[in-house]
Amino acid sequence: MNSPVKVETRRTQQERKQDAENALLDAAESLIAEQGIEQASLAKIGERAGYSRGLVNHHFGTKDNLLKRLLERYQAGFRLVLDNIAKTSKNSLEALLRSVDAYLEVYQVPGRKSPAFMIMWGAALPPATPSEAISDSEERVLSMITANIEHGQVDGSINTNVDPEAYSVMLLGMLRGIPGETLIVKKELDIAQVRQEVQRFIKQTLKP
Amino acid sequence: MNSPVKVETRRTQQERKQDAENALLDAAESLIAEQGIEQASLAKIGERAGYSRGLVNHHFGTKDNLLKRLLERYQAGFRLVLDNIAKTSKNSLEALLRSVDAYLEVYQVPGRKSPAFMIMWGAALPPATPSEAISDSEERVLSMITANIEHGQVDGSINTNVDPEAYSVMLLGMLRGIPGETLIVKKELDIAQVRQEVQRFIKQTLKP
Amino acid sequence: MNSPVKVETRRTQQERKQDAENALLDAAESLIAEQGIEQASLAKIGERAGYSRGLVNHHFGTKDNLLKRLLERYQAGFRLVLDNIAKTSKNSLEALLRSVDAYLEVYQVPGRKSPAFMIMWGAALPPATPSEAISDSEERVLSMITANIEHGQVDGSINTNVDPEAYSVMLLGMLRGIPGETLIVKKELDIAQVRQEVQRFIKQTLKP
Amino acid sequence: MNSPVKVETRRTQQERKQDAENALLDAAESLIAEQGIEQASLAKIGERAGYSRGLVNHHFGTKDNLLKRLLERYQAGFRLVLDNIAKTSKNSLEALLRSVDAYLEVYQVPGRKSPAFMIMWGAALPPATPSEAISDSEERVLSMITANIEHGQVDGSINTNVDPEAYSVMLLGMLRGIPGETLIVKKELDIAQVRQEVQRFIKQTLKP
DNA sequence: GATGAATGAGTGTTCATTCAT
DNA sequence: CATGAATGAACACTCATTCAT
Fold first, then answer.
1. D196 contacts in C (CB within 8 Å)?
2. Whose CA, among A14, A107, B24, C22, lies 20 to 30 Å from C2?
3. Distances (CA, A) of B172 to A14, B184, C29, C110
């Protein structure tokens, strides 16, 4: 089973598909980050990935489906971070603070790909948006934050005067709007400072 | 009968242009609110305004120009509100609180047109966005808020520990993100509650 | 009103559209006759008509709509012939005989355009055909023939033993199948002879 | 244990090819009957047959070749019926009548697969049709009918006034057009009645 | 024998823009 | 001022076919 030939074969047989799909998702991510969703045409994506024009449809069937997969990949990556934070935090407030900070950290360095999610979020604002993936996901995130706050009100780490749902909307809005501003405004913003303010803001408004 | 008719005609002649432009801007606003910027084609806009397919180009030359004008009209309207608040507020903190509340109030009622600005904001996230109008405007708003906070730190209404620029980014991000969430999430969000939370928590984080 | 300028103007203003639409319909008709519906792409049609690729969509919106219009034009032309025959025939049998003969006469000369209708008919055989225009039209024609036979049974020109609906299906099938055969079979078929046989045999089977 | 297994395997090895081909032809037949020739893509056919997307090309090389084979299979099946009728009929007229009735009987029940032939026939109407299989076949059928009529004029069962070739075209046209009408028209047609009319029609027009 | 990854041509459609009227 | 005919580029998507496995 360990013969190099078999390993070679197994890799070429099934992983070629994985390689291609990952390359296509990477290409889509960077193109969206640069030019937006509509300008990231399937032809450009295929060619930036080093393949042909038609490969995206061959693998994903539909542009909408490609976007869903890209979103899932992004969320799966972030979920690992959140799970780890949840396990190693003393209470709900600390988990919330660290999660928020981890999320904003991604946008601190002007990386090439991280904006893709924000751009997909921004493209989901019109009601007639084709994909409902963002909408569904956002609703889940909102519920998670609300649940976290409610839990913190039980474990005593969060002030019981806070309205969990309203606070969640405010907080998630902040978490989307801040990276949004960094993408829109041309002058460099000091995200490190903003992160500190956000931490302070949350502590002051949630502590009992 | 001739003279009044002529006056009427000449007046109509000049104002007909204004009427048409306003009708086109209204049509563009509602179409963007419904279908997004790309789907709001110039033909649809002209026809919804009750005119022909070609009128938008005739009046605005370019789609990008139409969007700029739409943005200007929106901002001019909101500037009146802000100016009035500034004049009638005791200090900077009160002005800030009232301005924030006035802004969020617009999104409380699920109106037909107000989302258009948010949709334009969301469409400006990709770096390769054609129009720079949003970008420039957002930078100005940011400066205004920063100046306001700095002024409040001088007049004593705002805590001097606050970093004015970082806080501005956080606050403006919140002001864009909250309406964004209401547009993306399908379930009805209680904006009235969110407004209260926002007020309370700005007070908590800015008061000396 | 008769000034040449006005006439010139009126012609250019409105009839340019008519000219273009007729040219597009003609181009579509000949392309369908040569290559079938699917191969008659909108680009080919526009260019054969002497215009651009996009004009078909500009005028007809949709390929399906273009086909509908083409069908209507064909039917309107044939209806004139049928109406004239109906008015100048002594009884229903004679009207039927002359109508059938007029229809088959079109396919006697291997003309360029007449096959287009048959090709559209043939393309409507799969149940998942997009356009329902042929289907609806065929049902109307069937009803007309049935009514004609029933009328002939009343006026005494047609045998009352004949089942009007079944005979109509047989007759209309014959009228579609015969031209179909001439299009499919390569060797030249003597349509004149076939027309004679059809006449004689309708008489034999319908006469009282 | 090895020998029977090998025999079993070898037999399966050969027949697996036949099984696959028949499954592919069945799948093609039903897909064509449902969606037409162009929409019956090779990938769909392979997958409906329970195999892979690429199997059709592997076995038939070309879509056109698949269609030829499908046509051959259809004709081979119908030839058995015709041969049997020819052997058990008293004279040419009876053979013709029974053959026609056997052919129409297939379309009486709204079966799933029988329309595939008619759809292929309809798709062969444009001159630029790639496959010539239908064209050649139709010419042979026409010759057969003509020969049958001529033979009937010799054996005395058919009127000598009839023009054999012209009558053949008329009859074959009828035999294609009637099923065609049942496929195009949505309202249910009473094929049993039509078959009776056809029988009567042929008797009245061919009997001496 | 059988699979399915990869290609690239082709289609209908949408759209901003130009320009003659 | 206003219309709308005409253009041509761009897009998502479907598909037959090739070929490595």
1. 163, 166
2. C22
3. 48, 18, 61, 75
* H/E stretch holding C103: helix C92-108
pTM of the model as a whole? 0.90
Query: In the prediction, which pLDDT does D14 show?
Result: 74
Enter the tokens of residue A93: 């407030």
pLDDT in tens, B98-129: 999 999 998 887 655 579 999 999 999 999 88
Window C:177-196, CB contacts with D under 8 Å: 177-187, 189-190, 193-194, 196
pLDDT reading at A112 higher than 70: no
Alpha carbons within 13 A on the beta-carbon side of B168: 22
Distance CA B200, CA A67 (A): 38
Find the Cα–Cα–Cα–Cα dihedral C77, C81, C86, C90, rounded to 10°: 180
The dihedral through the CA atoms of C187, C191, C192, C198 has a sign that is positive
The whole-angstrom separation of Cα D131 and Cα D34 is 20
Residue B157, burial from CB neighbour count under 10 angstroms (0-12, 13-18, 19+): buried
Tell me the domains of chain C and their CATH numbers: 11-61 (1.10.10.60), 64-206 (1.10.357.10)
Q: What is the pLDDT of residue C113?
A: 59
Q: Distance (Å, rounded) from C-alpha C206 to C-alpha A21?
A: 69
Q: Cα–Cα distance between D83 and B129 in angstroms, integer? A: 74
pLDDT at residue C131 in the model: 84
Could you tell me if C57 and C36 are in contact, meaning their C-beta atoms sit under 8 angstroms apart?
no
